Amino acid sequence: MAAQAQQETAVHDSALKSVQDSVREREISVEQEHLNRVYQRLEEKIHEAEFLMNDAAKRGQVGTPGALAERDAQVFRAGIHLNRLNNEFEDFLFGRIDLLLGKDGKKGPDGAYTAVEPAEGAIREDNTADIAETLHIGRIGVLDSDYTPLVIDWRAPAAAPFYRSTPVDPGRVVRRRVIRSKGRKVLGVEDDLMRPELKALLDGHDLPVIGDGALMAALGQARTHTMRDIVASIQAEQDMVIRAPAASVTYVEGGPGTGKTAVALHRAAYLLYQDRRRYAGGILIVSPTPLLVAYTEGVLPSLGEEGQVAIRAIGSLVDGAEATLYDSPATARAKGSYRMLRVLRKAARGALETGAGPRPGPSGRPAPGRPASGRLAFGQLAFGDEGDESDESHLGSVNGEGAVNGDGSHDARTAPQAPAGPPTRLRVVAFGRRLELEAAELDRIRQSALGGTAPVNLLRPRARKLLLDALWAHSGAAGRHTDPELAAELRSSFDEDVSSEDSFIEFLDAWWPELTPRAVLDAMADERRLGRWARRILNPGEVRKVARSLRREGLSVHDIALLDELQAILGAPARPRRKREADPLDQLTGLEELMPVREETQRERAERLAQERTEYAHVIVDEAQDVTPMQWRMIGRRGRHATWTVVGDPAQSSWSDPDEAAEARDEALGTRPRRRFRLTVNYRNPAEIAELAAKVLALAMPGSPSPSAVRSTGVQPRFVATDKGQGAGHGVVVRDSLAETVRAEAALLLDRVDGTVGVVVAMNRREEARRWLAGLGDRVVALGSLEAKGLEYDATVVVSPAEIADESPAGLRVLYVALTRATQQLTVVSGERDAPDANGVPDLLRD
Ligand SMILES: Nc1ncnc2c1ncn2[C@@H]1O[C@H](COP(=O)(O)OP(=O)(O)OP(=O)(O)O)[C@@H](O)[C@H]1O
Predict the structure, then answer these.
(1) From the CB of 811, is ligand 1 less than 6 Å away?
(2) Which residues lie in Pro residues bias regions (predicted)?
(3) β-sheet bridge partners, residue 200
(4) Closest CA to ligand 1's atom 24
(5) What is the pLDDT of residues 614-627, one digit of tens each?
(6) Neighbour-count burial for 628-655, b at 16+ CB within 10 Å, e otherwise
(7) H-helix or E-strand spanning residue 176
(8) Ligand 1 mean position to 760 CA, how many Å?
């Protein structure tokens, strides 16, 4: 009997499946027909654009200025149009919504009805309703020849219900469909029913529903080394952020995997669509690492936007300078803190006294004899240390050249030669007399010139004037004439005589050199000097570490913010005024007197703006929890008149003083009103991994909410100990060494997942870990804990939670980041410090 029942069930299941398959096929062919129509229309549009270009070329032959201008405008428009159409040709139709009749019959500019809520009576008393409107959603909008919308741009208001509608608040949407297509071929469809209780009819037939929803399908896909856009499955709470009005500051918090980075990128595309003219000033996206830039930079082009958006790592924000090193946690803490601002102000002024002369090139360019460190492979940062200190010695450098030995025996570079110092005496001859200023007087003049807060380089003319005043007083010529006009003439010829004298010019260059940020930073590499400038601001240990770190080849992420600050403190070096070539006409009109001054100012201004090129119309800060106070100042300067989107998660912060960073952030964002959002759903980690990570969150930030995971895989995290660990009980895999264990576990995961595997280790083990994985192929990568920020992999191996947690005062939060990178499977390998239990679970991850 049982066998017969089983057979009947199998027959029934297979019949059901074949019916479902045929419904799916039919629905795919319905969408295929629509896509064919869209392509046909696109081809018509391309012909139109080509015709316009040809026509415009012909008009140009007419030759009148008006015709030429018209032709240029047409070519321009048609060119843009063609370009867009050709670019968007791949995979741009991805969604569809079937809607009830709206409250009113008004249509928007995209040809769709604008009502969000259904009309009264749209649902009949017997709970049936007719589909009144069907919209297809894609990467750009396409209108049919009769102006009915074939495709609605995903950013248009009419597309919002595709993202916002939920079964709790469905609005007019009955069915939301995600269409998978490649080129001209529809591959599949996935439906979500927003009103499952309703019997909806489309052209008199039941509305079929296919699949289990697109979100799960998207989340289940294998990961590659680059991020995908989520345009087909943006969720309602994310859509609220993406489409939030751009006024003031949009502030978004959310745990790991809640889509903050994805939302930030889609928001950039949305803002451009919504008000392209306003954002012509550019959108800047600041990302914490070059790895995250490389991971995310393909998303905007896939959304049809790139030109006006700059995605830059925080270590690449200053033109001409590129961070290639990490600082040890203690050094980073000193360099990133607000205290450094006071040190830099003193250093900028003090550097004058050291005779830190001008260095060629822009702010960040290496000084002579100091080779530029090129970007490392894959944009990875080296983690050089400052060498000697016991609390840092475990952070051995991993960067081969210019490296510091783990035992601190070899210094990266010797201290730069201390300059001879500024001259202590000025001697000139004027009006036939030898005039002299001695050290004490020169010092007094310098202090008086430095009074006030103006940028140091801009004070040079003032210092020059004070020198001339003092020399004039010494000359005794002041009392020679009582007639003010004659006295003024005498003074002016005195000034001219003195300042054209070589000895005066050379003295001024040596005594008040034009400083570059790099020259000041170099001057700070001298520990004694830095100690003077940082007295009562940094402690002696910090002074030693900072000075040593500045003697390495290359710059750290934190040095970049210091360079930027110094640029602001120093101001652009004063440029000699170049006289405009005299125009004979000017001489006739007398304009020559006036023009050079005005023109010079304009030119200077243009030059300065081009050089600074740091102001943007909108600034998006990703992983904002890691931005240090000094970095906030740097970013703030790039968005003084901007609107902002700031996304982050305090629980993932690797910065040790969150209160100080919050103060700096508030200062950068000014008094602009904040609009706050919180993302609550974790789309990355399955529940099994999220649950484990929540244990570390409870230690790192007690009381902080853990985002709820949207799916579960049934695969528990795996725990593995080496024989050096204590645990060797039931279920624990024990191998001879950490290296062997990690390699074997990575290989196992490569077998189990289709996509990528990330091996996350403490920062000082990165190089070692790369060697462990040699030969396993490019689906697996080794990462230092700080590099893992923002990235994700199908599976991860987290090596020694205790080592990661002990790396810095923020170590537990860094460990939380490491544990939340996997989309499918997680293996935790314990090292010596982890004290695993009999099941291999390290101390930090036990209940
Ligand atoms: N609506 C969505 N549809 C499909 N995938 C999504 C959606 N939202 C997020 N994801 C996916 O979830 C993953 C996590 O997103 P993202 O990296 O933006 O999160 P995050 O909040 O920045 O994480 P973290 O704080 O850990 O850096 C990504 O793979 C992203 O594509």
Answers:
(1) no
(2) 359-369
(3) 129
(4) 256
(5) 689 999 999 999 99
(6) bbbbbbbbbbbbeebbbbbbbbbbbbbb
(7) strand 173-182
(8) 19
Distance of CA 108 to the CA centre of its chain: 35
Structure tokens at 596: 């050079």
With CA atoms as reference, report the closest residue to 521 among 665, 367, 394, 398: 367
CA distance 782 to 829: 14
- Answer whether 262 contacts ligand 1 (Cβ < 6 A): yes
* Whether the model pTM is above 0.80: no
Q: Is 257 annotated as a binding residue?
A: yes
- Candidates 242, 261, 303, 689: which one to mutate for ligand 1, based on the most atoms within 8 Å of Cβ? 261
Q: Whose CA is nearest to atom 14 of ligand 1?
A: 257
Q: Tell me: is residue 103 an annotated ligand-binding position.
A: no
What is the DSSP code string of 458-491?
Answer: GGHHHHHHHHHHHHHHHHTGGGS--SHHHHHHHH
Q: Which residue has the higher pLDDT, 452 or 734?
A: 452
Report pLDDT for 107: 81
108 is in an annotated binding site: no
Residue 718: count of CB within 10 angstroms of its CB = 18
The pLDDT assigned to 556 comes to 95
Which helix (H) or strand (E) covers residue 566, if one does? Answer: helix 557-570
Gap from CA of 392 to ligand 1 centroid (Å): 34
Place of tokens 């894959």: 378
Q: Mapping DSSP to helix (H, G, I), strand (E, B) and coil, where does residue 137 land?
A: strand
| Strands 149-153 and 133-138, sheet pairing | parallel
pLDDT at 723: 60
Is the pLDDT assigned to residue 332 strictly greater than 90?
yes
> Ligand 1 centre from 261 Cα, in Å?
7
Shortest-distance Cα residue to atom 8 of ligand 1? 259
218 touches 192 (CB < 8 A)? no
Nearest CA, atom 29, ligand 1: 684
**Residue 355 in marked binding region:** no
Query: DSSP for 41-89?
Result: HHHHHHHHHHHHHHHHHHHHTT--HHHHHHHHHHHHHHHHHHHHHHHTT
pLDDT at position 797: 97
At 283, the amino acid letter reads I
Tokens standing for 230?
């989520």
Ligand 1 binding pocket includes 235 (Cβ within 6 Å): yes
Give the residue from 34, 230, 50 showing the smallest Cα distance to 142.
34
Nearest of 790, 741, 793, 795 to residue 769 by alpha carbon: 741
Q: How far is the CA of 561 from the centre of ligand 1 (A)?
A: 29
**234 C-beta closer than 6 A to ligand 1:** yes
Q: What is the mean pLDDT of the chain?
A: 80
SS3 (DSSP) at 95:
strand
Nearest C-alpha neighbor of 42 from the set 110, 92, 101 = 92
